[in-house]
Amino acid sequence: MLLQEEQYVVKWLTQYGALSKTQIIRMLQKPRSTAEKILRNLRRQMQISDISGGYYIGTDPMCKPDQRTMIAVWVLLKFIDQVDPMAHYPASYPSQLFFLKENMGYEIVVLYEGEGSLLRLLQPDEDLKYTFRGWATTPMATTADYQPGGSYTANAAVTLYAVWEKDSYTVSYDANGGTCAPASQVKKYGETLKLRTEIPTRSGYDFLGWAESSTATSATYLAGANYSENAGITLYAVWRERNYDFSVSNLTVTPDEVWQYDKITVNFRVDNWDRYNAYSDVPVSVWLNGVCVYTGIVDFHAYGVNYITFDLNVGALEGKQTLEARINWDDRASETRSNNNAVQAQFEVKKYSELSTSAVTPSADYIEGNDIIASFYVSNDSSTPVLPSDHMSYRLEVYLVDGATETLVSTQDKTDVVIPANGTNLVYFKWRVPENSAGKLYMFRGIANAGNTVRERNPDNNATFFMKTVKAKETSQTPNTRYERTAPSTYNPLVSSPTTTVGSASWNEWVYENGKFELRTYGIRASAVDPVVKPDDNCKTAVLENGKWSMKSGYGISLAWNLKLIAISGYSMPDISAYTEAQTVMALIPEYGYSTDAGKYRSLEMAGGIYSFVENRDADGNARLHFIPVYVANGNYTVSVTATQIWTPAGMITAVRNSNTLTIDGTIYDDFYVGS
Q1: What is d(CA 94, CA 17) in angstroms, rounded to the nearest whole number?
Q2: 292 and 369 together in one domain
Q3: Smallest Cα–Cα separation from 649: which of 395, 372, 444?
Q4: For residues 165 and 130, is the Cβ–Cβ distance under 8 A?
Q5: Is 10 in a helix, a strand, or coil?
Q6: 183 lies in the same domain as 290
Q7: Which residues contact 518 (CB under 8 A, 6 or more apart)?
Q8: 103-112: per-residue pLDDT in tens?
Q9: DSSP bridge partners of 466
Q10: In degrees to the nearest 10, what's the CA dihedral of 346, 349, 355, 361?
């Protein structure tokens, strides 16, 4: 029977695998002579073995160490020097020994006969250890039969083996800007984990693998690779942006002029501009007048080219047709370029008709820098209607005329114009008059069936024109007359403010919907509340009483006005392409008799969503003010606002609105002088 101290030694050697004499003596906490006696007794009883220089291992029958292997272990132990036994980690005997020295972790792996040994430096914070789960009756058990302090009732000798559970570590996956990251995994200590084979996705990027940093540009691990580190980790997806760029070009239609129900041959080229990546199942489609007539897929090599050819029967189509080939259309926004994913070509399906046109004479001047609406009538003098399927177009050509020289400066096309049989429709174009073009003469030429989409018996009457000389844009503000005591001879304090006018226009257009023609009536009018005039904040003596301001002349006033264009009651509101906003807005003031002569009015401009005076250099901070001259007689003072250059297909409209009425009572001098 072993003494208690001898039992301790056997237990330690069973637990740790191998200890030096110095370590055992320190653990026994006995005088050296006493400890050596205990060791000699255990050696005589064959409880322990002495191998090379006073080092000891237990004689467990499961351990069959090679002496040369153990000597190598002892050399490593000498290198480690004396280790505090209380710092030892429990280990499975006989294969592993864990211990700490100066807060660094060390592991000695003792292998069996014919194999070697390994000394490994561990990170202190890795906490690489096994968790004790209890005792079992077999050395290879994974579950415990007994817990410490439990009862053993069998009437038989038994050897209980410690059951150790390996530590586990979590491997997490971060898509790092992508989606569909794999689920996390659990790795056991000392085992090798195969990483997930599923990969995340990210539009416009290729997945390169996994790395420990979210900013990595190269992968440390590939999908499905082995992970053997004894540590938890978050793996971040590593992405490489694709040079994702497909194009379609060289679309041809042969022949480009056919009769109804003829066949055409369509041919085009598609390219993959990515020099590094091949692609499969890239969608391709061809559209005829907004209807898909061909779908397919193509496979590309890196930097590859494909050609597509097919035949198409034009059926009952008539006139000019537009064919469009597309590639990767729904995902084109993900490409490095998105403006090369479609290409168009036209061909003509012949039909007979008879068209003519005339111009709508403009009702007012064209002003430099302003938008205008140029309008034309186009007539169908045949019993066959012009339908959307005819794709009839109307073209506006604008020429600068200099003597006998006509220079084309602009063209616009209005497509898919419809006209009932023996009917007339209205077409119009918005065009901006060039800046600094005052005094120049322009010709506006309208051409029906400009692309010859509709086959005609007589196309000689398909063009018309009108000419306009551009007027100068006048921007004016009154001079600084705030301190003038004497009124000019033209001043009339009794002049009445202009009459308020709404300003409106209406017109008709034919549309073709649900298989029939419908006449649409459009109408807009200028609508706004009256302009609001009030004294400047620097006019400290102004008084607001019963909603009406009273102030002295010589001070500044501000103005705010919001003009809106709305539908006339019973009419439809047209699209913005059919009209312009007010482009000339004038404040007409009573001291100049509400004159629109240059220098006798103030221009207004849009500021903060409302019309206001232009900035006045004579005001503090260039405030938007108009100064009332001191000679303005006492009494009512009303500002009138005129909004013009509002163009519609039916001509230009003008609106006049009068502001609230101020009361002038005295002059600015009354605030600073006493007496005459």
Answers
A1: 5
A2: no
A3: 372
A4: yes
A5: helix
A6: no
A7: 510, 511, 512
A8: 444 445 443 3
A9: 444
A10: -10
Block residue for tokens 């007496």 = 675
Pairing of strands 130-136, 161-166: antiparallel
Q: Are residues 228 and 251 in the same domain?
A: no
Strand-by-strand arrangement of the 305-313 sheet = 246-254, 263-272, 305-313
CA 47 from centre of chain: 77
Q: How far is CA 162 from CA 11, 97, 167, 399, in A?
A: 11, 15, 16, 101
Residue 446 contacts residue 376 (beta carbons within 8 Å):
yes
Residue 5, Cβ neighbours under 10 Å: how many? 16
Q: Which domain holds residue 634?
A: 504-671
DSSP-assigned beta bridge partners for residue 166: 130
Q: Which residue has the tokens 């034919």?
A: 510
Say how many domains are in the chain: 5
pLDDT in tens, 242-298: 778 999 999 999 999 887 778 999 999 999 998 888 888 899 999 999 999 999 999
Taking the C-alpha atoms of residue 267 and residue 258, their distance in angstroms, rounded to an integer, is 17
Do the domain assignments include residue 486?
A: no
CB atoms within 10 A of CB 35: 20
Looking at this protein, which amino acid is placed at residue 34?
T
CA dihedral (209, 212, 215, 216) in degrees, to 10, reads -50
Q: For residue 71, is it within any domain?
A: yes
Could you tell me if 400 and 370 lie in one domain?
A: yes
Residue 135 CB neighbours (<10 A): 19
Q: CA-CA distance, 448 to 457, in Å (whole number)?
A: 14
